[in-house]
Amino acid sequence: MPGFVLQIAPVPPELAFPAIRVGFTVSRKVGNAVVRNRVRRRLREIARQVIPETARADHDYVLVGRQGALGRDFLAMRAELQEALRRLKALAAPTATP
Question: What's 4-87's CATH class?
Answer without folding.
Answer: alpha beta
